Amino acid sequence: MKRLNVWWNFHLAIVVTLLLYFQSSASAAENTSADPLIRIPVFFITDRNLQPSKLGNIDFGPHRKYIGDCKHDPFMGSAYYVVENVDHKTVSSHLQDLGWAKAEAKDKLGAFEAIPLTDDNFDKIQKDFYDKVQTKALLCPDRNILLFAHGYNNSFHAGLFTAAKLAYNAERPLILYSWPSVGKLRSYDTDETNVEWSQDHFNDVITHLEKICTTDPTIKVRLYAHSMGTRLAVRATPLLREKPYLVEAALICPDIDDGLVQHYIRRYLSANGTAELRVYMSRRDKALAFSQLVHGGYTRLGEQADALGGWITKTLTAQNANTDAAMTKAEHDELTEKLAANKNRMQTIDFTNIDKGFIGHNVPAKLVCDMSFTNSPSPGLQLISQQSGLRSGLSNFFTKLTKLKSTNESSLMGDVLHVIKISESETSNSKTLKSKTSKSISSDSKITELKTSDPKSTELKTSDPISSYSKSTDANLEKSDLKTVDSH
Fold it and tell me: Of the given ranges (263-267, 337-341, 456-460), which has the lowest mean pLDDT?
């Protein structure tokens, strides 16, 4: 009997070992089955001129579609862009329905193809385009449509690259609005003129998206814009004010006068809005510091580094005897109370620690999408609250040089959310993080608790001091990461 038991136990052990082996092999095969490259679909609207690419495919150039009279019929269509599959995603049936596809053998990283809709009747093109967008939005549980406007020094190809990165991380339909940026460093002034010229075309996009959302109120829009493209978003504020279909407006490294933005806030923003408002800024961003210098020393929105909720509160409660009737104390207190109640939907996010290149000024696509859909950063990253006003050294230098320092030194409510990198051990053991960070707290650091206004979103809490932003960090920033800037 003992021999029989030994025999059974021996064979049972062999069977279990084989099962575990094949299971681990299957898991390994599944992990390695993901293709290294993926075709990501992007809808596009552009008022650039049409031109053939070097490969003979459709491409769009650096000039306006019209020289002279404008017919208000920009090119509309769909495109794909081949991106690196950094997260080892598999193209599921759902993603296939959204238009994702495995890269073909001939595809190389950065390959793209744009297919504009064609018809003699532009109204038909327009209807066909927005019908396709709506159809894709209905495939997603939250029925979100993403709209992205690129910035200065971006060709159509470069804008498509950033749009594809956002779409890859969001896994939702995305419309790229590509205005005629020349795509050259020396053409900053031309880009400023062209982005202003494109405003009415961009406003048409907002109007048509509103029609979709009015027809089906379950469909929502998230608006993303980078650098000079944020001017399109800010100037569209009269159309977007308090509209329930807009669930988020994210301005990434916004290259727009912050004083001008205050004017739009006072006229068009109220405490009754519901959209999440986010400004992403980086103290590594030298591009905005030079833009500040070019524009006479006036601060760009992406430099001011104040808590957005507090900055908006101060702007809305400020008095201007020349334009407004004096606000009573009761009205002032009521407005302040409303803004304080929903200020958590207004965030300034400092992503200095993950910004790339010597110039900085990048689009942190994964961070932006994670914040949009989970209200928390990517694994390996953490948000730490810190007081407002921590600007880059170069921005402060140009402010002193031009002698245009703000005369209003009043403190603002709320904190800026700093993105810091954490190791796996720190992720699994918060005590380790606390012991490491408590040693290098800056004397002016103040840590608070952030609670989101959305009960469904992840709640972020921390009482740990921040080590990544000790005094030594500012000195290290200028010495580290001296890579060539990514022109995209």
Answer: 456-460
Residue at 458: amino acid letter: T
**Rg of the chain, C-alpha, whole Å:** 25
* Pair type for strands 144-149 and 174-178: parallel
Q: Indicate if 297 and 402 belong to the same structural domain.
A: yes
122, 133: one domain: yes
My answer on whether 370 and 448 are in the same domain is yes
Q: What does each C-alpha distance from 104 to 35, 97, 112, 162 come to in angstroms?
A: 10, 18, 12, 21
Separation CA 274–CA 346 (nearest Å) = 10
Spatial CA neighbour of 453 closest among 204, 294, 248 = 248
**Most confident of the ranges 87-96, 327-336, 419-428:** 87-96
* pLDDT computed for residue 270 by the predictor: 76
User: Which candidate, 450, 423, 449, places its Cα nearest to that of 436?
Assistant: 423
Helix-helix angle 329-342:308-317, to 10 degrees = 160
Neighbouring residues of 445: CB distance < 8 A, sequence distance ≥ 6:
386, 387, 465, 466, 469
Tell me the pLDDT tens digit for each residue of 390-416: 666 666 666 767 666 665 554 455 678
Length in residues, the chain? 488
Residue with tokens 């599959």: 85
Residue 28 sits in which domain range? Answer: 1-33
DSSP characters for 42-53? EEEEE-EEEEE-
The verdict on pTM exceeding 0.85 is no
Query: CA of 179: how far to CAs of 130, 196, 200, 425, in Å?
Result: 19, 10, 11, 45
Rounded Cα distance between 408 and 389, Å, is 12
Alpha carbon distance 439, 450 (integer Å): 23
Q: Kindly state the average pLDDT of the residues 476-486.
A: 38
What residue ranges in 73-219 does DSSP mark as E strands? Answer: 75-84, 101-102, 112-116, 144-149, 174-178
Do both 86 and 18 map to the same domain? no
Establish how many alpha carbons lie within 13 A of residue 278's alpha carbon, considering only the half-sphere containing its beta carbon.
Answer: 27
Would you state the pLDDT for residue 297?
Answer: 87
pLDDT for residue 19 is more than 60: no
Distance of alpha carbon 275 from alpha carbon 244, whole angstroms:
8
Q: In this structure, how many other beta carbons lie within 10 angstroms of the beta carbon of residue 22?
A: 10
Residue 484 lies in a domain: no
Which residues lie closer than 8 Å to 224 by C-beta, 6 or more apart? Answer: 146, 147, 148, 149, 166, 250, 252, 368
For residue 23, is it within any domain?
yes
Does residue 376 lie within any of the structural domains? yes
pLDDT of residue 95: 96
